[in-house]
Amino acid sequence: MEQIIKKLYDTKDISDSSLAELLKSEDIIDLLHEYALKRRKEYYNNDVYIRGLIEFSNYCKNNCYYCGIRAENCSADRYRLTEEDILSCADDGYNLGFRTFVLQSGEDLSYSDDDICHIVYKIKSAYPECAVTLSIGEKTKKSYQAYFDAGADRYLLRHETADNAHYRKLHPQSMSLENRKSCLWNLKEIGYQVGSGFMVGSPYQTDKNLIDDLRFLQELQPDMIGIGPFLPHTDTPFAKYSKGSLVKCLNLIAILRLMFPYALIPATTALGTINPKGREMGLKAGANVVMPNLSPVKVRKLYELYDNKICTGEETAECLLCLRNRISSVGFNMVTDRGDVKPHSGI
Ligand code: SAM
Ligand code: FES
């Protein structure tokens, strides 16, 4: 096994059969993480970048079977923030030291392209040195271009699964993998820093699916790669499915770091939800970003993608000191600049 990991470290590539072996074994953690950590330090030292996450609406027109804010979940308590609310979150975030804002929502058609452009424009005008990341789902290329022209720098859109048959088991007929992928290519063509990714342990996922996910990412060469364990939500069709494995997720973070040494890889909220120390473990496995919540406290609980999502007390952006301590407790250093991706061949 050491040979496989060493070869991956040396060449950044790995055969399907070696990947299958790595994904099967749970006892390689120490070695795999050691190499991933070494690679991460070569590119990013001990730095961990922070992003202020503003979850501005939990309305969504889609019905992904795994997602707690899907349109057909009538139990969801819906909210949307006004432009003023969003700008005030960004102001608070700026004063706390954030230099990247991530605006995320369900696919909420009540915000027009002009509304989104205006919000982006206002944030960029107030804080030109900050990066604005959008994560608002599948849109036309024209819309993506308009947001970019208004000043958006980055876009997060997980592909969710690169396998068509698996995609069909997670989404209704109205959605397609083809469209999701073409959105990602459009975003790249426009010039965004692009993020993609997938859930680990989503229902029906096989190791072969995960290998296809990694191959798709090799094609796309995204700047940011977000993965986290699937966690069930009570009011979804997948309520009764098991959650993803923490160990597998950590191993995949390490594999991603070795395959994409330059990438910005978050230790996600889902990782922090599956285990109280999950994000610290993610950082030790090779992740280099954390995304604390900047949304107004009263709506935080409502952006409930899965059960028991962490969002209280010290988990929140206000407690940056706690976050700094958590990050340094595992040997890293919280950095409050834009944290752009290192130059790489996919740019
Ligand atoms: N609407 C945007 C989109 O489609 O990209 C952004 C919001 S969407 C809720 C953000 C991500 O949450 C999804 O890409 C998905 O991978 C993740 N997610 C949704 N439900 C989840 C669950 N039950 N467990 C873990 N992650 C989940
Ligand atoms: Fe739209 Fe989850 S179904 S954000």
Topology:
Layout: H1 2-11, H2 16-24, H3 29-44, E1 47-50, E2 52-57, H4 83-96, E3 100-105, H5 113-126, E4 131-135, H6 141-150, E5 154-156, H7 164-170, H8 177-190, E6 193-200, H9 207-220, E7 224-229, H10 246-259, H11 269-274, H12 278-284, E8 289-290, H13 297-300, H14 320-329, E9 333-335
Parallel strand pairs: 1-8, 1-9, 2-3, 3-4, 4-5, 5-6, 6-7
Helix pairs in contact: 1-3, 3-10, 4-5, 5-6, 6-8
The structure holds S-adenosylmethionine and FE2/S2 (inorganic) cluster.
Overview of the structural elements:
It is built from 14 helices and 9 strands. It has 347 residues and is of the alpha/beta class. The strands form 2 sheets. A 6-stranded parallel β-sheet has the order 2-3-4-5-6-7. It has a 3-stranded parallel β-sheet with strand order 8-1-9. Helix 6 links the parallel strand 4 (131-135) and strand 5. Helix 5 runs parallel beside helix 6 (141-150). The protein starts with a helix and ends in a 12-residue tail after the last strand. The mean pLDDT is 95. Bound molecules: S-adenosylmethionine (SAM) and FE2/S2 (inorganic) cluster (FES). FE2/S2 (inorganic) cluster binds at residues 60, 62, 64, 67, 69-70, 106-107.
